Structures are given as structure tokens and as C-alpha cells.
Amino acid sequence: MSHADILAASGLSKSDTTGGTLAVRTPVDGSEIARLKVHGAAEADAMIARAHGAFLAWRKVPAPRRGEFVRLLGEELRRQKQALGALVTLECGKILQEGLGEVQEMIDICDFAVGLSRQLYGLTIASERPGHAMRETWHPMGVCGVITAFNFPVAPWCWNAALALVCGDPVIWKPSEKTPLTALAVQKICEKVRAGFGDDAPEGLTQVLIGDRELGEALTANPKVAIVSATGSVPMGRAVAADMSKRLGRTILELGGNNAMIVAPSADLEMALRAIVFSAVGTAGQRCTSLRRLIVQEDVYDALMPRLIKAYEGLPIGDPLAGGTLVGPLIDSQAMVAMDAALETAKSQGGSVHGGGRALADSHPAAAYVRPAIVEMPSQSSIMHRETFAPILYVVKYRALDDAIAMQNAVPQGLSSCIFSTDVRETEHFLSAAGSDCGIANVNIGPSGAEIGGAFGGEKETGGGRESGSDAWKGYMRRQTNTINYSRELPLAQGIRFDI
Ligand code: NAD
């Protein structure tokens, strides 16, 4: 399929993709595939006002009916999975299987949210006063702004939007300026669903803002946006948190990771090897949950490392739309420069590099294909404390498990982590309060590729937000405590007497 065919199959017309100033390039070959019109500050404010109008209506629609909207969205995504998956691949460069996987995540979270729409449970609470009842209820919160990163162009929008919509909140999406086409295609799907839904789905229920960080700032600045859920780098999260704190707005922050795997002496090395390769080179190392640090017990180091280096040498690097490719391109040449710089720094800190460097330069001169790199490090030096968004896997040895856990936890980020071990004492210790300090901690499975049923997010510089499954829905609603007096007296709490 040509690039133009992929755009057309996802419902984008010529007028959607031409005539603007924002150039969209595909990392597949570096060519320009669209020029989009960008929104200005006044248009952003008008959209926010429209979303707020939608909120006043949508909050009164019964939650199961709101769930029906999300059910229909999931159905439409099922129908358009192939086309949208291919567009994800074209726009961000992840292999087609992963592009399709992202759309599947959207479908899964829609299914989850439909069930949730009948389970937005509150509590009944025992009152200390006779003839009184207490309860806790959950109400729609307001407009939810969703800011997303280039590497997962569609799934994180849906983790937020599917929940926000059943919770009664309209959604304004500010996608990455590097991947706005997928957002436009999804907005078309939403509009199709809305057109068939009936009058109770108001105009402005879902909207898309095209542009760079200034449009994100339009969301954080406007008090009519009750929640801003932002996915991206740590510097972006700091800026969003600072802006939102000025007006004490609610944030859900999903920021960078620096994820580790501990390989213990009892590990099944065959399984560990597969998990390492997938989680370190999948999406060309551009997942927030990519494996970046491998902490290997010294007794199994020599058994593991030659096999890992050999597996890297045989990795199929190439066009992410072609079958058989496992490693696609980086998003752009800046990412390639950052990877080279990190490898140079690692060398200067004593690292021994296997792989790395540019790939497919002759056939794809305008794209950023690289060979994934393994770097054996003498210790966890400063370069390993940083997230470089590229396929670099640093490897260090450990002797005692507590040292490995301390090393794992020593970085500023706290997203995902895992241990490969068949010793239950080790695995339970890793999952205990004295173990991993990350939001995600896995056993005998890599750090990337979370399921939507669990709450997703991480601690420390990762931002502390939770999205997707479990009780993440509470982040999109406001909690209200109610005390109801059905007696003929007016007793005060704590036995206070106040006679008039
Ligand atoms: P980025 O921070 O450059 O941009 C992310 C989004 O934030 C873009 O839409 C951008 O326009 C917007 N933005 C930037 N500055 C802003 C500001 N001051 N106010 C409002 N919006 C602003 O990130 P990126 O390069 O697109 O993505 C890679 C990063 O995202 C990595 O650090 C990765 O770990 C992280 N990420 C985290 C998760 C997670 O769930 N924790 C998921 C995916 C990506």
C-alpha cells in the first residue's frame, strides 16, 4: 500500500492533509506526507468553551448510556483496526504488528469502560449520629484535556478518553505535533459514532487541537479544563504541573521511564533472553516502558551475554510496514543524534558497546534507522540515570539481590521493572515494600507491554498518574461526601453542644 493509500483508507481526505503549515513526515522514509492547518489560541479557547457546553449536557446523561457511546466507538475501531493500525505505523514508525496492537488496546479499553459505566460505585458510610446516613458519590468532573506523545499516538488517548467519556467528561485531545494524523483519523471515527448516536451526545464531546506545545499550554491555562492528563517527557510534565498548580487544576502525569530487569541465578535464561530482546528493541526502544537497564547476577552473566549479543546481531531492521521487520526507524534524525551522543558518553564512562550506529543509510537516506546497541557498563554511572529514547540497553553485574534492587531504584524515574527468577523468596522480596519502587513490577515477564486491566503509571519523575484499568476512573470524577439527616433532631458531630 502506498502512503497516500494508507491516508485515504483511514478516512483522511486531501483537504484534511494539505494547505497548512505543520509538515508531517513519516519516519518510514523521511518523506512529507501531509501539511496540516494548526489551531490558534482563539480557536483553542473556542473549543474549550464548546467542550464546557458539552459537559453541562453530557454530565446529565446516565452513565450506562454514556457507556453505549463508548461501546459504539469500540465497534467502529474494530471495523477500522487495519486502516488505523497502518496509519499508526506510517506516522510513528513502529512495526505494523505494534500499530495494530495499539488499536487493539483502544478496543480493549472501550470494552472495559462499557462495563465500568454500570460500576461507578460509591460507598455507604456509618454515621455516628442517630437518624443520619452518610454516603460517598462520584460525579462528572469537567472537561478533560489529553496531551499525548509521539511514540503511542492513539492508545493513551483512548485510555483517557474511554474512561473520561463514561465518567461524564468531554475530551479535548492535543496530540504530538509529530503524530497528528492518527488523531484526526480517530476524531473522524468519533464524529461518525456521534452522528449515529442521537441527540444526547452533544457537539464538542470529543475534539482535537492541532499544533505544538502552545496548544497544550492553552489547555493547562484555561480553568474550564478541569483535568489535564499529559503523556510525554519529564520536562513537559514539570511544565504542565507548574501551570496547573497555578490554578490548582487536576493533573494525571505519565512521564518518562528508565526501566530495569534483574536476572537472578535461578532465572529461566531462555525466557529472559526473549523478554530482554522484545522489551529493549520493540518500537526501536521508544516505549516509555522499554527495557533500558539489565542488572545480571554475576554467576549467570557469562551464560547470558554472548547469546544476547548474538540475538542482537540477527535483528531484522527495516521498513515497519513490511512483514518480518522487528526494528523500525527512530522518529527522526534528532533521536539518532541523541542515541549517538549517549553511546559516546557511555564509552567515556567505561562502557563497552556492541552494535549501534546508523542502518539502511543507502536505501533510506532521509530516515533514521539504527542498529540497537548493548553497552556493558562497569557500574551504573550517570548516563544510566537518564532516559535516552532509543534502543540502548545498558548491562551491569550484581552479586547480592539487595544491591540489584538498590541499583534499580537509584534512578529518578519509577515506571516499570521486572525480575527473572524462579526462587519465590527472591520474587516476593522484589514485589514487597522493600523491593521495586516502580508503579509496575513484574515477575518473569519484561517491563513493556502492559494490559489495560491494571492501573498504568509510575512514581517519582514518572509523575505518579494512573490511567487505564483498576480504579483509575476515579481520576476523571469528583468525589462528594453526603450526610443526610432523616431524624427530627439536629445533633452535631463529635457531641458538640450549641444551644440557641
Ligand atoms: P514531549 O514531552 O516532547 O511531548 C509530549 C506532548 O507534550 C506533545 O504533545 C507536546 O506538544 C506536548 N507539550 C510539550 N511541552 C508542553 C507544555 N509545556 N505544555 C503542554 N504541552 C506540552 O514527549 P515525546 O518526545 O513526544 O514523547 C517521548 C516521551 O514521552 C518519553 O519521555 C516517554 O517516556 C514519554 N512517554 C511516557 C508514557 C507513560 O505512559 N509514562 C507513554 C508514552 C511516552
TrEMBL record:
InterPro entries noted in UniProt: Ald_DH/histidinol_DH, Ald_DH_C, Ald_DH_CS_GLU, Ald_DH_N, Aldehyde_DH_dom, ALDH7A1-like
Domain Aldehyde dehydrogenase: 19-481
The protein's Enzyme Commission number: 1.2.1.3
Pfam families according to UniProt: Aldedh
Active site (record annotation): 254
Residue ranges, annotated region (Disordered): 1-23
Keyword field: NAD, Oxidoreductase
Classification via Gene3D superfamilies: Aldehyde Dehydrogenase, Chain A, domain 1, Aldehyde Dehydrogenase, Chain A, domain 2
Domain of life according to the entry: Bacteria
UniProt-listed CDD domains: ALDH_F7_AASADH
PROSITE patterns: ALDEHYDE_DEHYDR_GLU (PS00687)
Subunit structure: Homotetramer.
Family as reported in the entry's similarity comment: Belongs to the aldehyde dehydrogenase family.
The protein's name: aldehyde dehydrogenase (NAD(+))
